């Protein structure tokens, strides 16, 4: 009940007893019980008014069930269309993968060219490099 254990419930009851006294606790319990009953009755009244309004407008339980069933069927069809056509997704993913591989190969070729030009520059320079101001 609300994540409260037995020991915690007894402790809360002890605190209530200490705060309000033994003569007020039954009155409080009656008031809480009446309030809960009134809330339950109000909720049931609201539900019945909604049902009466739905029936007056031509919606009964069966038509509502049919309507929700049709909606569920349409959702299932959409899922099948999205998940059923995996060939397009597979084609797209293979295209993206091949393009990524081509870019990686292009980058490795450029790295090799850069390394070759750096080696060539080092071979051309003899002696210490002087800075000009």
From TrEMBL:
Q: Which UniProt keywords apply?
A: Membrane, Protein transport, Translocation, Transmembrane, Transmembrane helix, Transport
Q: How does it sit in the membrane?
A: Single-pass membrane protein
Localization, per the record, is:
Membrane
* Transmembrane stretches, start-end: 6-22
What domain of life does the UniProt record list for this protein's source?
Answer: Bacteria
Question: Per the annotation, which location comes first and is thus the protein's main one?
Answer: membrane
Q: Output this protein's name.
A: Sec-independent protein translocase
């Amino acid at each position: 009940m609300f994540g409260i254990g037995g020991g915690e419930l007894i402790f809360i009851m002890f605190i209530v007893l200490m705060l309000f006294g033994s003569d007020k606790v039954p009155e409080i319990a009656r008031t809480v019980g009446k309030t809960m009953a009134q809330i339950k009755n109000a909720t049931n009244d609201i539900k019945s008014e909604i049902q009466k309004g739905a029936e007056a407008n031509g919606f009964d339980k069966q038509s509502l069930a049919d309507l929700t069933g049709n909606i569920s069927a349409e959702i299932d069809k959409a899922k099948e269309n999205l998940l059923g056509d995996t060939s397009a997704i597979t084609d797209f993913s293979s295209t993206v993968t091949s393009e990524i591989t081509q870019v990686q190969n292009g980058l490795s070729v450029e790295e090799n060219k850069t390394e070759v030009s750096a080696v060539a520059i080092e071979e051309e320079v003899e002696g210490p490099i002087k800075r000009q101001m």
